[in-house]
## 1
Amino acid sequence: MLSDTAVILAAGLGTRLGKHMPKGLVPVAGYPMLSYSLGFLHACNVRRIVLVGGFQFSELEAIARSLDPKIEPVLNTNYEQGNIVSLACGLERVAEGGVLLFHADHIFRADIAERVRQARGKGMTVFTDHDRLLGADDMKVATDGTGKFFKRASKQLRDYRCGYVGITYCGPDMLPLYRKAVEEVIRGEGPLVSSEWAMQYLADQGAPIRIADISGSRWLEVDYPEELARADEEIRTHGSLYPKAI
């Protein structure tokens, strides 16, 4: 597990948030959002962290290196396309070991890192929760009858069991298949789709993808100004529960 690499997708423009900067640099309770990503991933005990940036890349790279000198920033020149292109850029930097996929606009409490550590190993795992009220912009997940294996993910699903929290783990045994899935999705669907299409491709091919439930703890997604305000208040109130790199 110590050979795992985390890939942070952080190339987007963050248009919905209304800030003219990468979301990873948007301050939450006085610290850039990226600081919380790095703090959480350090708590997950990954060996490497690859940061895929695009919009205002030089600024993102400078702040990232100040937070973690060992971080490996990668430029996605096609950052205005879907984030599956960023995933492809990140996977190009991973020759061996497992991959922990992470989104830069998500902030997790420290206790969730323990659940991530326990779920890593072989195969692929999608992290979900079932204790949120999911809205139109949330990624819904349908499972098999046992609730243990992933079947489908879409924001438009009407029949679903849980919500995706933006973390996917791919073990070293699945890495070649994951890489191929990304390539096939881009070839077949084009570069404008999301990274979740890759795990959907694998599920459609019959690959068993486990579900790992992180319900019972708190995590934050920051897409809109009102979510940023809630995140700022939450961390100012419960900051010790959210690891950060400072």
## 2
Amino acid sequence: MKNVTVTRHVRVRIGRLSLEADATVLEAGKAEDAGRQALYEKYYGRAPKATIDDWFELSTVIKLDSIKYSA
């Protein structure tokens, strides 16, 4: 994550999926809150904002743009 603040272009591998993208660390605000809420609800269902904020207290949301997939 520290590298994202130096250079935005990143390579990410998740299992067998590899991709290149431009990454941005999202600052606290609407976009970050929406991302956190969507991720939490995907795995745990609806919850009050206080619960989601507590769950993500030590987390950082990174936005990936211009994604290019490779095998």
## 3
Amino acid sequence: MKKLIVVGIIILLVGMSIPSTGINIDKVSTSSFGGNTLYVGGDGPGNYTRIQDAINASSDGDIVFVYNGTYYERLEINKSLELIGEDRNSTIIDGMNIFIHGWNPLISKNVTICGFTIIAILELQGHGNITITNNNILGYDFRFDLYDQNGLNICSGIGNYIISNNTISGWNDSGMYWWTPSSWMKFTIINNVFSDNKYDGIYIEKDGHIVIGNIFINNYIGLNMADSNECNISGNTFKGNTCGMNLGNCNHNKIYQNNFIKNIRMVRFYLGSYYNNWDSNYWGRPRVLPKAIIGSIGLFIPSWFNIDRTPAKEPYDI
């Protein structure tokens, strides 16, 4: 028995003396893909210096885990993988753009980007499911001499895109811009902050999107929607924008339990945006009577109105 106790103590001491690798197992074992993990920026054997080198060496289903540091790179991702940063405030990608694509109609590409400060245009397109979560996506300065910069630049494709828990701010045009839209692409935009973008916090088109729990602050237009029907717009705060929300040719959207606070114009709608359901929104002050929301049949002349019949008496905690 004494020998067993001594052996146990020796094993314990040896285990305690093995140096830590610095890998946070909790952070790198959360993959839903079930592939291998490649590391960037660490000190151990097999670590890559550049993120793109690790992406090139990866296979579909792998994780690329990036340690804290600043990486001056343009990235191209054309396979299914998770790109995970150690810490969203200390793992920085500083480059002109990150391009995620996968146009093969027979192969769905599934990509997750999580845990970075991204000082680059993030361009998403193609067939698949893309998740952008828990990042800072910041407008860069003018060292590239580019204009009309959008933080998230989203092209046509097929799939489901989830944009969640990000801060997207400081862009010269829109924080998030969806161009050449497809009816087969659906968005869930949840719990993000869109702030200090020169034009839109979000510009979005087409039907059936979910925009919940976001904060739009100090943009020209907080949420700008065109040709968008049957969307769920709820639990958002629009504050300090020139225009909180703009709808052009949008109908049958559910717009409820949002805060509209200190925007120069709370809401603007036009070009046939007649039939939207406004309910229980907070309009900058307690209201007893229904709130009339003035719109126009054409572009400029006020000629139509919607009604929020049960406006909230106090702002929601968002």
